Amino acid sequence: MRVLVVDDDVQIIRAMRINLRARGYDVDTAADGASALRLATEHLPQVVLLDLGLPDMEGVEVIQRLRGWSQVPIIVLSARHSAGEKVRCLDSGADDYVTKPFGMDELLARMRAAERRAVPLEEAPVVRTGSFEVDLGAKRVLRNGEEVRLTPTEWHILELLARNAGQLVSQRQILHDVWGPNYQNETNYLRVYLAQLRRKLEPDPAHPRYLITEAGRGYRFEREG
Amino acid sequence: MRVLVVDDDVQIIRAMRINLRARGYDVDTAADGASALRLATEHLPQVVLLDLGLPDMEGVEVIQRLRGWSQVPIIVLSARHSAGEKVRCLDSGADDYVTKPFGMDELLARMRAAERRAVPLEEAPVVRTGSFEVDLGAKRVLRNGEEVRLTPTEWHILELLARNAGQLVSQRQILHDVWGPNYQNETNYLRVYLAQLRRKLEPDPAHPRYLITEAGRGYRFEREG
DNA sequence: GAGGACCATGACTGATCCTTCACGGCTTGT
DNA sequence: ACAAGCCGTGAAGGATCAGTCATGGTCCTC
Questions:
Q1: What is the reported pLDDT for B225?
Q2: What is the pLDDT of residue A120?
Q3: CA A12 vs CA A110, A132, B93: distances in Å
Q4: Whole-model pTM?
Q5: Closest CA to A96 of B96, B94, B89, B86
Q6: Please, what is the average pLDDT of chain A?
Q7: Residues 120-179 of B with CB under 7 A from strand C
Q8: Arithmetic mean of pLDDT over chain B
Q9: What is the pLDDT of residues A147-169, one digit of tens each?
Q10: What is the pLDDT of residues A24-57, one digit of tens each?
Q11: Which terminus of chain A, N or C, has less C-beta within 10 A?
């Protein structure tokens, strides 16, 4: 669940990032309207928390430009209690308007409410190869139409590689993403799990076509065999 | 555009009725939870404005019973500033929570926001498997043409899985949806209830074909055996 | 107040998964 | 050719997770 936090106050950004991370959100942050709009197009967050009073743009303008192409829930955070501002934001397309100071619990509840009724816009993110397909939404892998059973760790690694299909993912990055920051030297694990993934997915596990090793650098998910 | 105003204060009822009428709404009013629920079923309002502190029923209960069959936007109006109350209402299914005193303009803007994103209600889908069918609209399960009796909790879990048929649903998500945010570690419950569901629905409960466990990941409703 | 339905909770057993190690092949540089 | 890394493979112990059964509690009905 990805959330985009837009605020020009570094303190707030930090506090929000910590709080939201702890609740299991992936957090993007932006300090101005332009980078907010860019990040929104790149990462497609499921919720946007928008502070008013950005340096480069009116809040209403950010809302309108987001609404130009996206239905993502927007929750406005603001210190201004002006009723007119609330009405303008809500009528521009914001979903909710919370005035500072607010409790984190309340904000989280409002985020859940917004997510709950969000249009399930989903484009089906499925990564296909010549031999199997990875359904990132359903969290499952099909090979010849049959489901392949993966363990949590196996899936975690495969998902990471598939989301970066065609690109090299470094060993450090995999270890960090899957096992956390304290396992960056356990390249052992990668060898074991990559072997298991190949055994389950590759036509000829001894000569991988899709899960490619780049010696000393990392691994790469290749779509075309 | 019909709106249902629920409040036990005659003054407020009158004021709201006048204000909303002037904006072109058709207004129903109820002074307690029971008549609110009855009016909601009879007139199918497009928005519900719900005051807390009704004489006969907790606000959360009204929300839950409405949500049992309706997706109508619910905006809670309350003099209580307690954060816990807000969280409970929002997590029970309320769309917004406005604290008194509030400006009429703000309320109207929030109503417009709620109406805007209200989904035109979907047709009741039925999820079929080789052994039974789940009627999400009628909230019941048929097996060999006969109704299977499910307890509320069993149904809640089955409904969640069936709505996401084919997709993996994590344990956390089920626990959060069914028991609330404070039960995310009670994986015990899932084991017990999944066993009960299998006993009632699976042809061979010891070897489930439709309610699939993925160890460490979650559960999956599988349509095809 | 007796009974039944439903829920919460704990204990036990079996299954699954993770970690770790050992060994051998392959590549690279000297 | 040899040594040193790096990688792939298989297997074993221990940790974690799931299925099952049993128990006590609460609420509602009769």
A1: 66
A2: 61
A3: 18, 44, 28
A4: 0.69
A5: B96
A6: 92
A7: 149, 151-154, 179
A8: 91
A9: 999 999 999 999 999 988 999 99
A10: 899 999 999 999 998 888 788 999 999 998 999 9
A11: C
Inspect the interface and report whether the beta carbons of B106 and A117 lie closer than 8 Å: no
- Least CB-CB distance to A138: which of B93, B166, B172? B166
Q: Distance between CA A149 and CA A216 in Å, rounded?
A: 29
A91:B112 CB<8 A: yes
Our CA angle for B116, B121, B126, nearest 5°, is: 150
Hey, what are B32's tokens? 């307690």
d(CA B192, CA B208): 14
From the number of C-beta atoms within 10 Å of its C-beta (0-12, 13-18, 19+), residue A20 rates as buried
B41 pLDDT above the threshold of 80:
yes
- The whole-angstrom distance between A85's CA and the closest CA on chain B is 9
Question: DSSP letters along chain A, please?
Answer: -EEEEE-S-HHHHHHHHHHHHHTT-EEEEESSHHHHHHHHHHH--SEEEEES--SSS-HHHHHHHHHTT----EEEEES---HHHHHHHHHHT-SEEEESS--HHHHHHHHHHHHHHS-------EEE-SS-EEETTTTEEEETTEEE---HHHHHHHHHHHHTTTSEEEHHHHHHHHH-TT-TT-HHHHHHHHHHHHHHH-SSTTS-SSEEEETTTEEEE-S--
Q: Are B13 and B5 in contact (CB under 8 A)?
A: yes
